Amino acid sequence: KKLLLIDVDCGTDDAQAIMMAIACPDVEILGITCVGGNTDLENVCRNVLRVLKLCGRLDIPVFRGSSTAILGQNIHASDFHGVDGLGDVPDANAPGLELIQKEHAVDAMKKFACEYPGQISLVATGPLTNLALTVKMDPTFPQKLHSLYIMGGNMESRGNTTACGEFNFVADPEAAYIVLNDYLCPTYIATWEFACRHKFTWEWYDKWVNMGTKKSDFIKKIYAHSLQFSRTEKEEKAIVGGPGFVSCDSYAMAAAIDGSTVTKVIECAVTVEITGKFTRGMMVLDLIDDLKKQNKAFVITECDMEKFKALMESTVLGD
Ligand code: BDR
């Protein structure tokens, strides 16, 4: 089985990405680590537990990580994901936070990497704070991973949070900078524009959330808030290539679960702008080897939509 560690700031698309991994029979999730991002850290932890309960997988250990970015900033995406991160749909039966492990996320990541050297694919769908802290505490951590899959950054200078910054990288640019420089393991990046260019039609979305399963009902409920936002003029402008349904985090997850979903990449060194007045948090692709960086990343530019669609559909099947 493929071993996964998942680091999330559990908003709506993180929830769906976790469900995708759970639905895949070839995957074993060792643990889920939480980071503040789409919503605050306590909501993130609660949201992960809600998803695990829905899927009958409360056996997967969940760890609390960093609540703020490395420099202490704290931005959330409540406009899109709701204040609680899952569309502000009340859930009286949400599991209690006492189920969260005592161990810190960073310690858990280091421990798993030592237990399963060279075997873990780490999927990061939030700000990269926990990953940056881990590599600073143990510089050999990335070498103990099999691979890293990130949802974040941008490849055509298009942003969704600032004019040219994607949310996860803008939320913690220093962390993104550290990870892109210090993670010397095969690193795949699903950027904002890549996700937008592989969006679904709203017609497909309507069928997907109306499958009549407990899971499709859950997805429909948690996405209702973000859809009001997605269909606003401002957001439709932000969606590269025109309107449609984009579940960003699922692209990184699909790549980790089944590498054959990735059909085209740009292999190049990447870094993050951390000082620019207008460009802080923007990912930079070094296509002319200006930085002379030894480690190159795989920036995903195309995926097999039929395979991706099948993974999305598997997410909501079965109760
Ligand atoms: C990313 O930011 C978050 O709002 C989403 O969960 C996704 O990880 C898209 O820019």
TrEMBL record:
Instruction: Look up the signal peptide feature and give its range.
Output: none
Q: Which Gene3D superfamilies match?
A: Ribonucleoside hydrolase-like (3.90.245.10)
- Lineage top rank: taxon: Eukaryota
Q: Which Pfam families match?
A: IU_nuc_hydro
Which GO MF term does the entry hold, naming one?
hydrolase activity, hydrolyzing N-glycosyl compounds
Coiled coil feature spans: none
Q: Which residues form the Inosine/uridine-preferring nucleoside hydrolase domain?
A: 4-309
Into which family does the record put it?
Answer: Belongs to the IUNH family.
Q: What is this protein called?
A: Inosine/uridine-preferring nucleoside hydrolase domain-containing protein
Traced from the root, the source organism's taxonomic lineage reads:
Eukaryota, Metazoa, Chordata, Craniata, Vertebrata
